Structure formats: structure tokens, C-alpha cells
Amino acid sequence: MKPKIEICCGSAQDCLAAQAGGADRIELNSALALGGLTPTLANLIQAKKAVSLPIIAMVRSRGAGFCTTDAEFEILLTDAELLLKHGAAGLAFGALNADRTINAAQTRAMADLAHQYGREFVFHRAFDCTVDFDAAMRQLIDWKVDRVLTSGGEAKAEQGIETIARLQRNYGSQIEILAGSGVNAGNAQLLLKQTGVCQLHSSCKDWLTDPTTAGNHVTYAFASAPHELDYDVVSEKKVRELTLAAAG
Fold this sequence. Notes:
The protein contains 8 helices and 12 strands. It has one domain: TIM Barrel, CATH 3.20.20.380. It is globular. By secondary structure, the chain is α/β, with parallel strands linked by helices.
């Protein structure tokens, strides 16, 4: 089976690069520097016009962790329904309690909403912050979650290979496991062979310069050296290299 490649995109333009590079699926976000937030409807609408790939929409209101207040969650539900009504192929969402267990009420409500529209529900890398992977995985399976994005609880998927492999062995027949974080053309085959997963998630990030990022005594830089004047984009070349490497 040909491995599936999902590209994490921050704009409609990124979606075009992902499709041109041979990706199979897109996760659309805004604010990738914060780990990915809910995309604007305009970017989803434009991306739907421009590409034929399924687009999973991130549903996340802010940076930092995943303890979502009731007020935040009501807004996220509204965002989610708008994204689904405008053609998102699914939702990526994760909510945790302060003790790092999954927030069952919020997760089930968001999953139910996606499934009511006949779309997919993905529990994103909030999973990697849970206190008990096995308990979390069993819950997600019980709630009919379609897919889990994970690095095996490590900063990068390559460091979490053993955990991802164990999760795939124990639960892969009941839920899709998508390996992500630090995935590139250089480690794609290693991850696929040693974990047994059949899908990978990558940002395939490159940088473009905006010379107005800093001026006088003011800077709006978010990246460290040597990218102080840059913003991140999806590289069509890196997507193509990854898809070719994954295909073997």
C-alpha cells in the first residue's frame, strides 16, 4: 500500500504547494508558529477552489496547552461547524483536563459534530501530552475517533519510534495512527518500516523573507537566527522529496 502523506499548511498558497508536490491530504491551520490554530474561512474557501485534496481543518483557539474553557469551546464549536459547512473533510482537535487526561465531554462533542456531517475526526498531538497513552487510545477508539496524530510522546517522531510502533501494533486495526513531527525525506522510510504506520504528517517547511519584519527599534520576528526576517511556507520541493522517499 502506498503511504499517505499529509502536509501541515498555513495558507491556501501552502495547499497549492502541497498538492503540486504530490501530497495526499492537507491539514489546514493558521499561526503554525504557535503549533497551529483554526484557519480563516477565507483560506479554506480559497484552498477548496484551488486544490482537490481532502482538507482537514485545525480547530484550536490559542497557543500553549489544551485546557479549553467552556467559553472557548463554544466558539470552537461554532468555528468547526462553519468549517464543515464550507467543505472541510474533517476536523483536527484535542482537549485535555488539567491532569493531562482527555476532556471527554469536549472531545466527544467535537467528534460527534464531525461525524454528523459525515466527515473525519482527528485527535491531534494533544495526545502526546496525555498521562497514559493506552487509556487515551482506548477512549478515542470507544468514541469512534478516526485518526490520532502522534510523535510517540517525544519532541520528534523519530525519537518516539518505539512508542509509535507499539501503538500501531496494539491499536492500528481499530484507529488510524498518523506519525508526525520532524518527518522529512531523510527519515520517512525509517519511520514507515520501524513503526508499521502507513501515513506520515509533515510541514515540509521553508522560509521566505519579509524585509519589513524589523525596522528602527521594532521587530515582529517570531523565528530565531538566521530567520529573523522570515516567515514559514510549505516547500513544494520538500513535499515532492518526501512523497518520493515514502514511496520507496
